[in-house]
Amino acid sequence: MTLFLSVILGLLLVILGLCADWPLWAWVASAALLAVISVVTNRVLAPKAEAFPRDLLPEPDLPLPESVRQEQRVNHVALSSSVADYDFSFSATVRWLVLDAPSDAPYINPAGLAIDAVLQRARVVTAQQPPHRSAFVQHQLDGALATMRVDSTGRVMAMAFDVSLSLPEHDRERLAKLSDVRKDEDVWEHERNYERSKRAYLGDDVLKDTGSAVVWWLSRNEKEVEGAVDRIGLLAQLSAAAKNETVAPPFEHLVPPRIVFADGSTDEQEPADQHRPYGMGDTAASDNGSGNGLSVDSLLEWFGFSTADPDVDLFAERLMHLASVHGKTDAVDEIRRRFVHDPTEPGDDDTVDGAAPPPGDEPTP
Q1: DSSP tag of 155
Q2: Residue 136 in contact with residue 176, Cβ under 8 Å?
Q3: pLDDT class for 67, splitting at 50, 70, 90?
Q4: Which of these ranges, 27-36, 123-132, 190-199, has the smallest mean pLDDT?
Q5: Residue 304 has pLDDT above 60, yes or no
Q6: Residues facing residue 69 across a β-bridge
Q7: CA distances from 81 to 97, 140, 173 (A)
Q8: Roughly how many angstroms between the first and final C-alpha of the chain, as a whole number?
Q9: E strand or H helix at 52
Q10: Which of 58, 162, 292, 310 is most buried by its number of CB atoms within 10 A?
Q11: If we measure between CA atoms, which residue out of 254, 258, 224 comes closest to residue 237?
């Protein structure tokens, strides 16, 4: 500081002397003044001597020794997750600092205490997380273990850095399979619930009765009123079938009848209270006893023929020809006994066996 002030003051005196054109004696006087000012400044700014030297004090201010920090790498330690039997693999560098202890305190292994403290802190975090979130939990551990904390014994402070957390490959594969299965189960459960809801809607609402079914169909086809009327019989059948019941009496006349042929094929559906149509392969038709007339008469009644109808004989001849074509001789004999009064009349067999149908008419298949 003295040197700095002397230089500044000397420069000012030189500038002032040049500007005022001082004589020689003035320069000598200014130099002497500058020297005096420098000596006075140096004495003013010099520190005062201590009464007692610092090194002679009872407790000298010695520099504190630097704390010794030690660290150790821990690799592949199993830490439990929130799912049993699925453990994380934990690795980190543990750093610790030994704290002061009383003179009578027992000796310790600071590395063991520090590693145990870090593992206990890490286990608290991992035990609450599912195993498939190892990357997320690793970042959590980075924050949870990044601070020096005193262990439970109070002898060391420990922290961890360079944390690595992973899940074994075979456990990841198992979890992926379980996840796929759970997703498939969820989809299947939703589909089943949807199917149940749809069945309940159709059974308890749409097909609750014939009227509900007709209204439902008409709501979906608002411009087809005639089509709704034509389908009342079909909707009545659907409504009855949905409840395992017969068609309601008010709608029986709208249900089309059905003919069951010998080969098992059917025509249209018959009402529940109609007589069973005559079957060419029935035992009733081949039996020479009771019940034969009933089956044949039911068939004629279904076709709308009466005994006084002039076309009934022609219809009987066609039936006999159709039965003979299919080899149903018992049915031919029965029909002949029912409609031909004298079976021995000549020409009857010719009419039935091998005779061509009346001109202009083809046999009905």
Answers
A1: S
A2: no
A3: low
A4: 27-36
A5: yes
A6: 97
A7: 29, 14, 16
A8: 135
A9: none
A10: 292
A11: 254
> Which residues, listed in sequence order, are joined to residue 90 by a DSSP beta bridge?
77, 165
pLDDT tens figures, 223-241: 888 888 888 888 888 888 8
Number of H helices, E strands in the chain: 13, 4
Q: Torsion angle of alpha carbons 9, 11, 15, 20, nearest 10°? A: 50
Q: Which residues contact 164 (CB under 8 A, 6 or more apart)?
A: 90, 91, 92, 138
168-177 confidence digits (pLDDT tens):
999 989 999 9
Tokens of 252: 């029986």
The pairing of beta strand 87-98 with beta strand 149-150: unpaired
The widest CA-to-CA distance across the chain, in whole angstroms, is 186
In the DSSP assignment, the letter for residue 76 is: E
With a cut of 90, say whether residue 75 has pLDDT above it. yes
Share of the chain above pLDDT 90, in %: 28
**84: which 2 tokens?**
């049993």
CB 115 within 8 A of CB 94: yes
What's the gap between Cα 161 and its chain centre? 37
Sheet of 69-80: strands edge to edge?
A: 69-80, 87-98, 156-166, 149-150
**210 has pLDDT over 70:** yes
Q: Taking each helix axis from N to C terminus, what angle separates 292-303 and 329-339, rounded to the nearest 10 degrees?
A: 80
Q: Is the dihedral of CA 335, 339, 344, 350 positive or negative?
A: negative
Sequence-distant (≥ 6) Cβ neighbours of residue 353 within 8 angstroms = 324, 332
Residue 207: what pLDDT? 86
Span 146-163, pLDDT tens digits:
999 999 999 999 999 999
Q: Which two tokens stand for residue 358?
A: 């009346």
